[in-house]
Amino acid sequence: MEERPPPPATDTPETSLAETSSTTVSSATVSSATVSSAIVSSTTPSSATPSSTTTDLAEEVAGACACFRLRQAARVVTRGYDEAMRGLDLKITQLTMLAAVAIGRERATLSDLAENLGMDRSTFSRNLGPLERRGLVELSAEGRHRARTVRLTAAGGALLEEAVPRWRTAQEQLRARLGAETLDQLKTQLERVAGGV
Fold it and tell me: How far apart, in whole angstroms, are the C-alpha atoms of residue 122 and residue 114?
């Protein structure tokens, strides 16, 4: 039987298992690094400045938002009234709550008072807590099928009487600042807003 000659040698060098593994690992490493770089790039916040469109929108909100202007004005006015109440450990928001309770004459429920003041019941109850702890108001006992009512205590009535002259001073200061006609018009417009008109 005739023997076949061995296949001719090629010029392509043989690749060892180690070299193949090294190449594979290297490729995987490059691929992994590329992916990691892409992930970091996509998740890193951009330090670019806001676009002109974003700035224009922000300026529109800041300049024309009625809610912002009302809240800004309310903060300024509130500071003036709170300053007048200094020394009584009472804020204007608490004075209005005492007044609402006094007007209710022990018949107003928590829900009634909250609605009259434009607050939700949970917020009203939370704000009423400090007044109750100071003994300025008292809540009726909670009974079955009976809503809790609030009454002004003697201490609460005395504090209300002491606070009203200070409140009048703050009221007159605001009137002098805005003018009597402007303040009356503002009060009318705010009543319309509060009434949902």
Answer: 9
Tens digits of per-residue pLDDT, 30-78? 455 454 554 445 445 555 666 778 888 888 888 889 888 899 999 999 9
Cα dihedral value 77, 81, 82, 83, nearest 10: 100
Residue 136 near residue 153, CB atoms below 8 Å: yes
The answer to whether residues 62 and 52 touch, using CB atoms and an 8 Å cutoff, is: no
Q: What is the mean pLDDT of the chain?
A: 80
Closest by Cα among 69, 70, 92 to 170: 92
Separation CA 115–CA 122 (nearest Å)? 11
Query: Contact, 88 vs 159, CB < 8 A?
Result: yes
pLDDT in tens, 79-123: 999 999 999 999 999 999 999 999 988 778 888 899 888 899 899
Is residue 182 a contact partner of residue 174, using CB atoms and an 8 Å limit?
A: no
Summarize pLDDT for 140-152 with one digit per residue, the tens: 877 555 678 899 9
Measured N-to-C along each axis, helices 66-84 and 92-104 cross at an angle, to the nearest 10 degrees, of 90
Query: Residue ranges of the alpha helices (H) in the chain?
Result: 17-43, 52-64, 66-84, 92-104, 110-116, 121-133, 154-178, 180-194
Output the CA angle 38-44-47, nearest 5 degrees. Answer: 125
